[in-house]
């Protein structure tokens, strides 16, 4: 299997198309149909990003691929009849174009949506794979490129689509009309094609589009060939899905082309004056979102990608870089005809707890130790402030923080008859909710716990030590201030209620009562 895949990749390096074999003066005209449908048959989970993936392919082909808008058709959420009619109409246009003297035609068809072993599921009505293949294969184009991102069902990093069935394989005849045909599929064997909430798209199409924007340009000649795009999509998809619940996904590549040369899909220098270039340092992976952190993911540069520059439409972008134990985030402006180096100095280091609270699959949990100083007001009249310290461990989920803490403090009591020291050893658990602002995070919480109380007397008379147990309940507000290297400074103020047995002087009996105190904690924590 590995040997066959390597052979296919080696063969792809010598891809042949009419555009390559034709005389130098031949004109190359490009046509494409991009199809995306989130809906499937009854009972299939509706996809989130199939239609958006088709739009991303449309944009990159129009901006960098030399596909005139008049020759591009984008179908979102359309049924079988519209898809069939569009493919037939496009075949007629291709036939008219190829009949012109010294003209070669590249025809690309892309599909993202539900499918099974027999048909594409364009809503409730299927389109058989046999008919779909024939509509593409029957084109008179010099070279035909069919890209299929087929789908299954799933959850957080969802498996795209519905029932668990073997994915379809489009079988190609050994002899094709025209100069040839290439088919890319997003998965092989009995694998599922997966989509990602973080990427807001499928792994395969995301990797393919990122490659066409420049990261697949392995030889750095300014042009991304079909072989380069496939190799980048294959390696990126395999690497990303190897960490998902559904497991590794292996895109497939089938071709039957004649001639010598390579099929160029996008050319970066040709459009450089109209585009903005972002260049990233080596050794770290980056995601690029349009406008803000909530915007669509438009490109990714992998940690191992040799090419570190992507071509984007001019505008504002949000960049997220992944370090070994932190993220770097920030907004940058891509100017037309300009190249910007996106170094660490342009981005802000982000605490892991903030990443968790943002959601989106970047991290599901952050945790780490915290320790500091504690101060409590007196529980009974005449007592002094209770000074001490605390240690704890915080666990931060997207909507809730949980932190068990162990604390100790000592206060003193003095009157004309005796002196006493009061020691408290407490254990509490805090539940909190936090909101992130620039540099600081605000939070509110409640805590419950138990405290062991010990009172020791110094007097000329008889005054044995006293021991007691108190239940505690508190409400609090706090602020965390981000420091360097994953550390933060935390300040927390709470109103604390103690319920314990209170004894009168000279008596061993007492009654259960409540006392309210204010508590202040100041500590330094680390997010892991």
TrEMBL record:
Pinpoint the Peptidase C14 caspase domain residues: 30-254
Sorted alphabetically, the keyword list is: Signal
Q: Which InterPro entries match?
A: Caspase-like_dom_sf, Pept_C14_caspase, TAT_signal
Q: Which Gene3D superfamilies match?
A: 3.40.50.1460
Which SUPFAM superfamilies does the record associate with it?
Caspase-like (SSF52129)
Origin superkingdom: Bacteria
Signal sequence span is: 1-21
Q: State what protein this is by name.
A: Caspase family protein
């Amino acid at each position: 299997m590995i040997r066959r895949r390597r052979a296919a990749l080696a063969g792809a390096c010598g891809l042949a198309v009419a555009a390559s074999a034709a005389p130098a003066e031949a004109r190359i005209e490009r046509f494409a149909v991009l199809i995306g449908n989130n809906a499937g048959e009854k009972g299939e989970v509706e996809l989130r990003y199939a239609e958006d993936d088709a739009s991303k392919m449309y944009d990159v082909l129009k901006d960098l691929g030399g596909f005139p808008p008049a020759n591009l058709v984008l179908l979102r959420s359309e049924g079988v009849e519209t898809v069939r009619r569009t493919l037939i109409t496009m075949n007629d246009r291709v036939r008219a174009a190829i009949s012109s003297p010294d003209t070669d035609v590249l025809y690309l068809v892309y599909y993202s949506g539900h499918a099974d072993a027999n048909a594409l599921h364009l809503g409730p009505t299927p389109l058989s794979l046999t008919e779909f293949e024939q509509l593409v294969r029957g084109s008179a184009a010099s070279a035909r490129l069919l890209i299929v991102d087929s789908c299954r069902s799933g959850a957080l990093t969802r498996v795209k689509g519905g029932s668990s069935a073997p994915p379809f394989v489009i079988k190609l005849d050994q002899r094709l009309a025209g100069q040839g045909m290439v088919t890319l599929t997003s998965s092989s064997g009995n694998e599922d094609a997966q989509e990602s909430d973080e990427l807001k798209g499928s792994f395969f199409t995301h990797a393919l589009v990122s490659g066409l924007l420049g990261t697949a340009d392995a030889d750095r000649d300014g042009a991304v060939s079909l072989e380069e795009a496939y190799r980048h999509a294959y390696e990126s998809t395999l690497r990303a899905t190897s960490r998902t619940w559904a497991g590794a996904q292996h895109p497939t590549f089938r071709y039957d082309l004649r001639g010598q040369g390579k099929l160029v899909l996008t050319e970066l220098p040709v459009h450089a004056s109209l585009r903005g270039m972002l260049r990233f340092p080596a050794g770290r992976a980056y995601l690029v979102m349009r406008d803000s952190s909530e915007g669509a993911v438009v490109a990714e540069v992998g940690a191992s990608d040799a090419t570190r520059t992507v071509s984007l439409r001019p505008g504002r972008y949000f960049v997220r870089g992944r370090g070994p134990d932190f993220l770097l985030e920030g907004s940058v402006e891509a100017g037309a005809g300009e190249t910007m180096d996106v170094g660490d100095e342009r981005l802000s280091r982000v605490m892991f707890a903030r990443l968790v609270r943002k959601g989106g699959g970047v991290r599901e949990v952050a945790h780490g130790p915290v320790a500091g100083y504690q101060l409590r007001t007196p529980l009974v009249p005449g007592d002094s402030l209770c000074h001490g310290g605390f240690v704890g461990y915080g666990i931060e989920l997207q909507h809730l923080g949980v932190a068990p803490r162990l604390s100790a403090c000592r206060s003193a009591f003095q009157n004309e008859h005796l002196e006493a020291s009061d020691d408290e050893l407490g254990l509490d658990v805090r539940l909190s909710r936090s909101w992130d602002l620039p540099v600081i995070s605000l939070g509110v919480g409640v805590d419950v716990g138990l405290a062991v109380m010990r009172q020791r007397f110094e007097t000329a008379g008889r005054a044995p030590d006293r021991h007691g147990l108190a239940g505690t309940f508190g409400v609090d507000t706090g602020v965390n201030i981000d420091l360097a290297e994953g550390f933060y400074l935390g300040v927390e103020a709470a109103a604390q209620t103690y319920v314990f047995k209170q004894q009168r002087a000279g008596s061993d009996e007492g009654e259960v009562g409540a006392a309210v105190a204010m508590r202040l904690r100041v500590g330094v924590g680390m997010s892991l």
